[in-house]
From TrEMBL:
The keyword ATP-binding applies. PROSITE patterns: ABC_TRANSPORTER_1 (PS00211), ABC_TRANSPORTER_2 (PS50893). InterPro entries: AAA+_ATPase, ABC_transporter-like_ATP-bd, ABC_transporter-like_CS, ABC_transporter_ATP-bind, P-loop_NTPase. One of its GO terms (molecular function) is ATP hydrolysis activity. SUPFAM superfamilies: P-loop containing nucleoside triphosphate hydrolases. This is ABC transporter. The keyword Nucleotide-binding applies. Gene3D superfamilies: P-loop containing nucleotide triphosphate hydrolases. It comes from Prauserella muralis.
Length: 261
């Protein structure tokens, strides 16, 4: 796995969550959540529906403020979503702006950061190429397939060279074949850029296939019931990795933990 050479040597975690607790007016959803994410690591979050996965991801991204506890990135406390962090949501049709062309959609974070037009255009073209969408800059998102639109959303998340990607069920709205392609795209991007990712998924096989670690949330309020190290090595392959004995063991381990509650 490619570690990021530009990452400060003294820092060991791109994200450090300590004793996080989240209480909504009606109930406490998360309690005492602590974990770290290292540079270039993919951590998958799984757990039953309604357990608090999205809530946790929103707290990690500074989109929601935890009731108590802390989220630190590069050693500093979060105050909103930092520039080196990007979020990819499940619903690409709502996250892309339909009145803007693909290139402009991808370049949005750079525009917000005050990057000039020619550099924005250059970088958007480059990152569209990296996700396999060269030549689509002048199209509108609605002229592309669902899988292509999610690639545009991933390109936009990558355009400003993030150190952490937060992904909330990013492949749940595409067909099975496209899902495999986007999973492999995520692994390739991580290998090439050293970006770390926290990915929420309902699909246990996907969590094991993509993750270096799978965190299982359970209970009410939810805690991390189990952290499973995925010792499958890299690179992974949709056919041979998933058919392997160890893959089956890891999948069973995660499933057992989810079913326990
Ligand atoms: N803004 C809010 N105000 C009050 N309760 C909320 C709010 N957002 C989420 N909740 C509640 O918090 C709990 C966790 O929701 P969350 O969406 O984080 O779960 P999840 O594990 O991501 O669910 P799913 O897997 O179905 O997407 C749910 O009971 C939900 O109703």
């Amino acid at each position: 796995m490619a570690a990021d050479a530009s990452y400060p040597a003294e820092a060991t975690a791109v994200l450090a969550v300590d004793s996080l607790r989240m209480t909504y007016p009606t109930k406490t959803v998360l309690a005492d959540i602590s974990f770290e994410v290292r540079p270039a690591e993919i951590v998958c979050l799984v757990g039953p529906s309604g357990i608090g996965k999205t809530t946790l991801l929103r707290c990690l991204g500074g989109l929601q403020i935890a009731t108590t506890g802390s989220v630190r990135t590069h050693g500093s406390a979060l105050g909103g979503t930092p520039r080196h962090m990007s979020v990819v949501f499940q619903d690409y049709s709502r996250s892309l702006l339909p009145w803007m062309r693909v290139g402009a959609n991808v370049a949005l974070p750079l525009r917000a950061a005050g990057v000039g037009r020619s550099e924005r255009t250059r970088r958007a073209e480059q990152v569209l190429g990296e996700v396999g969408l060269e030549g689509t800059s002048d199209m509108y998102p609605w002229q592309l397939s669902g899988g292509m639109q999610q690639r545009v959303a991933i390109a936009r998340a990558l355009v400003d060279n993030p150190r952490v990607l937060l992904m909330d069920e990013p492949f749940a709205s595409v067909d099975a074949q496209t899902r495999f392609e986007l999973e492999d795209l995520t692994l390739r991007i991580r290998a090439e850029t050293g970006v770390a990712a926290v990915l929420v998924t309902h699909d246990i096989d996907e969590a094991v296939y993509l993750g270096d670690r799978v965190l299982v949330l359970s209970g009410a309020p939810a805690t991390i019931a189990r952290s499973v190290d995925v010792d499958l090595g890299q690179p992974r392959d949709q056919l041979s990795t998933r058919a392997g004995h160890r893959f089956g063991e890891l999948r069973s381990e995660v499933l057992r933990e989810i079913r326990r509650y």
